[in-house]
Amino acid sequence: MSDRPATPLLDRVSEPADLKAFTDPELTRLASELRAETISAVSVTGGHLGAGLGVVELTVALHAVFDTPRDKLIWDVGHQCYPHKILTGRRERIRTLRSGGGLSGFTKRAESVYDPFGAAHSSTSISAALGFATARDLGGTCEGGLGDAIAVIGDGAISAGMAYEALNNAGHMGRRLIVILNDNEMSIAPPVGAMSAYLSRLYAGAPFQEMKSAAKGLTQLLPFPFQEGARRAKELLKSVTVGGTLFEELGFSYIGPVDGHDMEQLLAVLRTVKARADGPVLIHAITQKGKGYAPAERARDRGHATAKFDVLTGEQKKSPSNAPSFTSVFAKSLVREAEADGKIVAVTAAMPDGTGLNLFAERFPRRCFDVGIAEQHAVTFAAGMAAGGLKPFCAIYSTFLQRGYDQVVHDVAIQRLPVRFAIDRAGLVGADGPTHAGAFDVAFLANLPGFVVMAAADEAELVHMVATAAALDDRPSAFRFPRGEGSGVEMPERGQPLEIGRGRVITEGSRVAILSFGARLPECLAAREALLARGISPTIADARFAKPLDRELILRLAREHEALITIEEGAAGGFGAQVAQLLADEGVFDAGLKFRMMVLPDTFIDQDSPAAMYAAAAMQAPDIEAKVLEALGVARITARRGLA
Ligand SMILES: Cc1ncc(C[n+]2csc(CCOP(=O)(O)OP(=O)(O)O)c2C)c(N)n1
Ligand SMILES: CC(=O)[C@@H](O)[C@H](O)COP(=O)(O)O
Ligand SMILES: [Mg+2]
């Protein structure tokens, strides 16, 4: 018996245009098949499950009513797009999601004309859709043509400032634009904030009753199909209203709440909007994250992200862990520091579990702040608390900190405020691919005057870096660490503050020094083993700091060795560039030092296992060994000997 669900209707769909031949009841049945196919696919790939399950009906209805790829359907974040991928010609490859050479876990322009705009970071969809609408109205051209622009944005994503910037601009422009607010009352964690509470009030309790009575207003905006026939649609839409909402004030026609799992209701609303809208419209759809798969519906995160799993039981197939994760080491260390210092507070931008701050929140609920998807605000909020005498730790993934960069420069660095940045997911992260790679933080932080920038070589080092940041009261600091497990090193009871700008030598050798910044250190040590077998004994050092540099150590390594190689899990312009600047300033190159920098290549590396991605980046132990041989000119000699 096949472990794939029977999908007779879905089997008739090779592109969205095929949906036009389906009757409305068939579309409802198609949605159940699409849900089963999504569950089956994610059970073998792992990935973002709950969000996609929540938009299955919406996905079918949108593709049935609109004409993609001419109409531009833009999924915010893109983590809910698996059902969309299945309907848009990628069903054959859906079981390759998030793996090397497979489909991306997000929307991606290079992958399909049905993904008109790539995403993975949140809250960009309304801006992008408004861009398409403007291009359409001003004679732009693009693959597939230009029709309607439709943004689907979640209740979590709409908490970000960027979404409001877009709504503000779109309401002012008045162009025809369709925004679907997919409100499942969930972000990754339960949503937070006044906006989330406001959205809930729009369909719960007294305000909902008021809106019901205002439902008459809808017929003015959307006369078809209310005035003739379509009695069912009229009944369905009785509880739907326009007027009186924040969105109306911003210049949108607000339609909602709509049951996002009721195909008839969705089709009625979308067909009407398609036929009648002449300005910006916001459709408020109420959905359930994880809908239709009991283990996801029951899960605390509603099945937001999952490992591979057994479809029948929902049991996830997680590989056993050999060492604690860097994230949990960070979280526990921060709790320990906060127990000793009542001024320590922590900030997360909608990632309490991902950053480990859920642990901190349990222990110190009043000292932990989840600000929603709002990295810019998180940084400046932390800066304000630092100015007010608290000791804020801002825990943000490297990739998401990019969004708060001006705030880091303007609000933190220039004012020299002691905000501590705990930068998780440094380096290549695996299945989430290039959008989530932590590639640039060292480059963009180590260039800021006054910043202290550290990288943990292992989990014990991370414990010390948390203590170092806690003790550092006179300037901003950051410490970075990778996704995943540590290397199982012995852990200190409590961190000891490190001397600022002081690295450490791991092994003394000769001829060549390898200076590692961060978690490539184990790879350097593995390369050393291979080099020892060739009669080369490299010095291995852990820089710990990219700023301030350990000048003394670096200059000694440069002067006492024929070659110096730096390595870091980041893009060019980071640690290696800082070292190069020092060596140039000190005239060390004039003396003939052979210097090499190992950094991420100047390309975005597609998703794969982290090890495969680092192999693609030529940053594994054999690559380090090869770099040493090349710098010393040994490889060529070996090859000649081989020939002889
Ligand atoms: C700028 C940014 N910050 C954080 C994230 C991590 N993130 C991905 S999905 C998500 C929750 C999104 O919630 P919502 O928009 O309501 O979508 P849902 O998953 O509920 O469908 C978060 C915080 C991100 N992708 N981008
Ligand atoms: C969609 C998104 O941005 C997050 O769900 C992200 O995939 C989480 O990554 P981690 O698994 O590294 O926490
Ligand atoms: Mg949500």
UniProtKB/TrEMBL annotation:
Molecular function (Gene Ontology), one example: magnesium ion binding
- Self-association and partners: Homodimer.
Q: What is this protein called?
A: 1-deoxy-D-xylulose-5-phosphate synthase
Give me the gene this protein comes from: dxs
**What PANTHER family does the database record attribute to this sequence?**
1-D-DEOXYXYLULOSE 5-PHOSPHATE SYNTHASE-RELATED, 1-DEOXY-D-XYLULOSE-5-PHOSPHATE SYNTHASE, CHLOROPLASTIC
Traced from the root, the source organism's taxonomic lineage reads:
Bacteria, Pseudomonadati, Pseudomonadota, Alphaproteobacteria, Rhodobacterales
Provide the cofactor list for this protein. Answer: Mg(2+); thiamine diphosphate
Keywords associated with the record: Isoprene biosynthesis, Magnesium, Metal-binding, Thiamine biosynthesis, Thiamine pyrophosphate, Transferase
**Record function comment:** Catalyzes the acyloin condensation reaction between C atoms 2 and 3 of pyruvate and glyceraldehyde 3-phosphate to yield 1-deoxy-D-xylulose-5-phosphate (DXP).
Broadest EC class assigned to this enzyme: transferase
Q: Kindly list any coiled-coil regions of this protein.
A: none
- Which reaction does this chain catalyze? D-glyceraldehyde 3-phosphate + pyruvate + H(+) = 1-deoxy-D-xylulose 5-phosphate + CO2
Supply the EC number(s): 2.2.1.7
Binding-site residues for thiamine diphosphate, renumbered to this chain: 79, 120-122, 156-157, 184, 293, 375
